[in-house]
């Protein structure tokens, strides 16, 4: 192993044991095969637990929350239907378009569980709507930018007691990272993105799951242990070019349309994974073709393509930054159980995510 990637016996005294003990005492073979498999976790699915019932804080809803990105005009909408509120759509036309779409082939997002956010937590979840946090008393994400830019293993040291086996996965991410990463990133910056994309095996929650849950539901003080990692991670993302403006599709197996009337401001506080292929919707393991479903069609302006730095480097994944702020443009009942909400991303009037370094551009240049 390259010495630069060794994270054992360093100055902080952090040591990654070569043989990790899992809850079912199986061995890790070849440093990659992880055990302690949770029967609740399937190869292509993780779920979001959201509690939208204000009258019953004990109720937990497991929602398959899928992020989909693609060309609506070419893939989802072969009839050229418009969702900008300027036209009332004919329901029969929409039904035909959806039927045609159902006949599309499977996509290649099956191995990426991050397109379905995982917020399964013990205990009672915060009951507010985690899809629209604009009214939540959370506050902007600030303070992390003043942290020093550290190597990945040092940046993750404060998380050692929070995220199970974090240092093992740090080492794995570094081992997967190219000696010369693309986009002008350093090895540690590229590995920070890769670490975010790795799915923990077994019953333990992945870094992305714990981080996003904290971003959406906890006080900013509880986010502090993540500051050093956020400094490295957001620095890496800020160095990537913004993807060209286009529609991002995000779905959830629940009717949320009543919560998003036109002109409603919407803020998503977590990192949001998206995909450039829309055909993921056809798979029953995600939204499927029946049952209550809500699609968020987002006109995104500052997504980052992380394919070159992802553990899943065969997938065209795009990531939205925390504090993505949008306004509801329109709502459409495309079918009795399928609801489409058109969102348009806007630059917020106040800073919701502090830039990671001076001169960092979180949004594309204008003018």
UniProtKB/TrEMBL annotation:
Listed GO MF terms: NAD+-protein-arginine ADP-ribosyltransferase activity; nucleotidyltransferase activity
Protein name: NAD(P)(+)--arginine ADP-ribosyltransferase
UniProt key word Nucleotidyltransferase: yes
Family: Belongs to the Arg-specific ADP-ribosyltransferase family.
Catalytic activity, EC: 2.4.2.31
Coiled coil residues, start to end: none
Keywords: Glycosyltransferase, NAD, NADP, Nucleotidyltransferase, Transferase
Reaction catalysis annotation: L-arginyl-[protein] + NAD(+) = N(omega)-(ADP-D-ribosyl)-L-arginyl-[protein] + nicotinamide + H(+)
Organism of this sequence: Rotaria magnacalcarata
Gene3D superfamilies (alphabetical): Toxin ADP-ribosyltransferase, Chain A, domain 1
Keyword Glycosyltransferase belongs to the record: yes
């Amino acid at each position: 192993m390259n010495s630069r990637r060794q994270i054992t016996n360093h100055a902080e005294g952090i040591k990654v044991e070569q043989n990790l003990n899992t809850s079912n005492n199986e061995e890790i073979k070849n440093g990659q095969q992880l055990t302690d498999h949770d029967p609740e976790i399937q190869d292509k699915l993780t779920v979001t637990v959201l509690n939208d019932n204000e009258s019953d804080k004990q109720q937990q809803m497991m929602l398959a929350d899928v992020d989909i990105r693609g060309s609506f005009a070419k893939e989802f909408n072969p009839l050229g239907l418009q969702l900008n509120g300027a036209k009332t759509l004919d329901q029969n036309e929409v039904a035909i378009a959806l039927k045609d779409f159902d006949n599309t082939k499977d996509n290649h997002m099956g191995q990426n569980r991050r397109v379905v956010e995982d917020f399964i937590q013990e205990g009672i979840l915060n009951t507010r709507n985690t899809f629209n946090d604009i009214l939540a008393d959370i506050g902007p994400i600030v303070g992390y930018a003043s942290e020093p830019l550290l190597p990945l293993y040092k940046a993750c040291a404060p998380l050692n007691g929070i995220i199970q086996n974090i240092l093992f996965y740090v080492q794995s991410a570094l081992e997967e990272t190219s000696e010369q990463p693309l986009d002008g990133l350093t090895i540690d910056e590229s590995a920070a993105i890769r670490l975010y994309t790795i799915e923990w095996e077994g019953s333990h929650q992945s870094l992305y799951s714990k981080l996003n849950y904290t971003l959406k539901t906890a006080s900013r003080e509880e986010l502090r242990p993540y500051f050093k990692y956020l400094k490295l991670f957001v620095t890496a993302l800020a160095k990537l070019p913004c993807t060209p403006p286009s529609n991002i599709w995000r779905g959830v197996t629940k009717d949320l349309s009543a919560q998003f009337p036109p002109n409603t401001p919407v803020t998503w506080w977590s990192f949001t994974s998206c995909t450039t292929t829309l055909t993921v919707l056809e798979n029953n393991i995600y939204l499927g073709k029946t049952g209550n479903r809500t699609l968020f069609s987002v006109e995104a302006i500052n997504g980052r393509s992380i394919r070159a730095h992802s553990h899943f480097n065969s997938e065209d994944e795009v990531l939205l930054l925390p504090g993505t702020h949008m306004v509801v443009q329109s709502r459409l009942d495309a079918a009795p159980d399928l609801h489409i909400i058109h969102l348009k991303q806007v630059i917020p009037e106040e800073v919701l995510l502090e830039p990671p370094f001076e001169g960092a551009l979180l949004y594309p240049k204008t003018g």
